[in-house]
Amino acid sequence: MVYQRGRSKRVKSGSEESFEANEGRPRPVKDKPQPSPERLEQRARNVLLYQLAKSAKSKQQLREILEKREIPTEIAEPILERFTEVGLIDDQAFAATLVSSRRSFRGLSKSAIRQELKTKGVEPQVIETALETVSTEDELQSAQELALKRFNQMSHLDKTTRDRRLAGFLQRKGYSSSVTFAAIRWAESQELK
Predict the structure, then answer these.
(1) Would you say 155 and 166 are in contact if contact means Cβ atoms under 8 Å apart?
(2) Residues near 152 by beta carbon (within 8 Å), at least 6 away in sequence
(3) Which of 8, 57, 77, 174 has the fewest CB atoms within 10 Å, i.e. the most exposed one?
(4) Which of 108, 95, 82 lies closest to 169 in space, CA to CA?
(5) How far apart are alpha carbons 192 and 135 in whole angstroms?
(6) What is the DSSP letter of 71?
(7) Do residues 128 and 118 lie in contact, with contact meaning Cβ atoms separated by under 8 Å?
(8) CB–CB of 192/133 below 8 Å?
(9) With contact defined as beta carbons under 8 Å apart, do 44 and 82 qualify?
(10) What pTM was estimated for this model as a whole?
(11) Given this model, what pLDDT does residue 29 score?
């Protein structure tokens, strides 16, 4: 190597290339070697097992996670299919569990749960099958329970303010106007007893 005075320039001789030509421009970055298909398959399996151990997920959610991890589709799809065959991925069970938990813990309506399942990539027929277990009476009963609980918390407010806030609360949970106002009337009647 030869070093010159002034600006330091590195010049390689012989078969090595000269770096003087690249002065002022970034040097080309060498491409990382691509992992073998076997390593990508193993990585995809590991990612799926890790994600499923954390929480239940839909097949579409897992597909998106693999895409973010840069697993090629031609490798990801067969592995997703295999996990589905052996029952590790089950959108029907996922949907049923989500319906049950969202109704029990958050008090969400069928329409709110339907929307959440759609955003998680669950197929429409699977969503409808999972929501068949929720009747109109169940929906009204859930809204009534939520309304009564909130009604008691808002007892210090005047009627107009309380009703407006209760209506907003129930509608954010996804309940229709008719169910919302029926639940509010029921909560008021329970309070008068």
Answers:
(1) no
(2) 191
(3) 8
(4) 108
(5) 28
(6) -
(7) no
(8) no
(9) no
(10) 0.73
(11) 60
**C-alpha distance from residue 177 to each of 116, 149, 167, 170 (Å):** 20, 19, 8, 9
Position of tokens 């995809």?
44
Tens digits of residue pLDDT in 128-177: 999 999 999 999 999 999 999 998 888 888 989 999 999 999 999 999 99
Place of tokens 């399996």: 45
Residue whose entry in the numeric block shows the structure tokens 């009534």: 144
Q: Cβ contacts of residue 17 below 8 Å, gap of 6+?
A: none
| Identity of the amino acid at 172 | R
Indicate the length of the chain as a whole number: 193
What tokens were used for 108? 């969400």
> Chain centroid to CA 146: how far?
26
Residue 78 vs residues 82, 83, 85: alpha-carbon distances, Å = 6, 9, 10
pLDDT score at 34: 78
The answer to whether 162 and 169 have CB atoms below 8 angstroms apart is: no
When pLDDT is cut at 50, 70 and 90, the band that residue 184 belongs to is very high
Burial of 38 (0-12, 13-18, 19+ CB in 10 A): exposed
Alpha helices in 25-158 (DSSP H): 37-54, 59-68, 73-85, 91-101, 110-119, 124-131, 136-153
Per-residue pLDDT band at 17 (split at 50, 70, 90): very low
Give the pLDDT mean for 182-187.
Answer: 93
* 86-88-69 Cα angle (round to 5): 115
